[in-house]
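Crash report, auto-generated. Payload:
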Amino acid sequence: MAFEPKIVGFLCNWCSYTGADLAGVSRIKWPPNVRPIRVMCSGRIDPTFVVKAFREGADGVLVSGCHPGDCHYYQGNYKALRRYHLLRRVLEQFGIHPDRLMLTWVSAAEGERWAKVTQEITERVRKLGPLHLKD
Amino acid sequence: MPKPKVALYWAASCGGCEITVVDIEAHILDVAKAFDIVFWPCLMDFKVKDVEAIEDGGIFVTLFNGAIRNSEQEHLAKLLRRKSKVLVAFGSCAHEGCIPGLANVTNRDEIFKTVYQETASTDNPKGVLPQTKTEMPEGVLEIPEFWNKVCSLDQVVDVDYYVPGCPPQSNQVWAVLDHLIQGKPLPPKGSILGAGQKTCCDECPRVRKEKKIKRFYRTHEIVPNPEECLLDQGLLCMGPATRDGCGAKCVKVGVPCRGCYGPPPGSHDMGMKMISALSSVIDSEDPAEIERIIATIADPVGTFYRFNLAHSILYRVQEDLKEKQAVK
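Recovered output after restart:
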């Protein structure tokens, strides 16, 4: 059977989750590989969540928040941005391909963009292949 | 009534945890008065067969320090678990792998290559590597098998309590031993003993301001202001991601906290908590500048996971990136 990537998506409540919802009600197709988890803000996404997802079988992780300047909590998405950069560096040192982690901004009006983003990470992780974490 | 038996053992460790027990000074006599020390190879002459002769569960408490990285240490950990009512992971190595756990950034083959072939002082023209069994005219010699990874004690056997620290501070050690001597009720299984419930920052006397970090410094690059928070000054202090209980000894003398007391309550993975903490104080909203600031952190994994790597979620360096690069 062909490899189907498992991707955990952490979506902020105010923009990205609503954007994904809009994609749904607009009947825009997006890959079912991304499993969305709603959190209140992208700034709430502890890096622990990301590595835990990898440890428990995810091949990729998508973090999605409001566009810079649009955060419902003023600057949570900037915290997510800094975490993303630092976490990528740490993942690389851990021998995990940093492209398995993706950060993106999707607003509540961008159903089309949500579909594009999920296609992008799905294809990216498909190319990288399954993640086998060793004990 | 016979005195309760107590054992102390060391596996992959430096001996600092043994020193810290002796550092309780004259109280060591109280320990000897209250307990019958049945096994303490670092200080007294015992043999493993002495332990084997004790009935299962016959030892009241074993303080086990050191990580587990070979078959002999595993054997002793399992033996002492069987013989002890209470098994305490004593010190950072047994608690979460500590410095030996940093070997998980590599593997057995690489370690053997460096140690037995590549170092400048090694003279090994035949490239001999340790074997678990060697045939000699007198018979077969056996040495323990070296593992591909370093484990904390609780990854090998069931552990009742943890005493964190590299080494645990002697006043905290005495507090734990005194608790046992007085026969007070034991706390719930899995408790962390001899430490606090907050972070190192709560014990730190330095003055904190709003943190805005434009670059990080290594300790040799600046002379820190003696009154101000070290992290405010750009030194990578692990205080925000470290449990209190040590008395903030390092930061009081101008050395950033290295994180030996392990993660604070509610957290399991110090490195990820540190990423979280630092990301809140890096002063930039521009990706290129953020990259520049992050580049001033010399070794993120080695710094954030100095004591916690073997016990972290990712546990060891993975092959994913290497496999992908090999494909290219």
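Post-recovery validation: Chain A has a mean pLDDT of 96.
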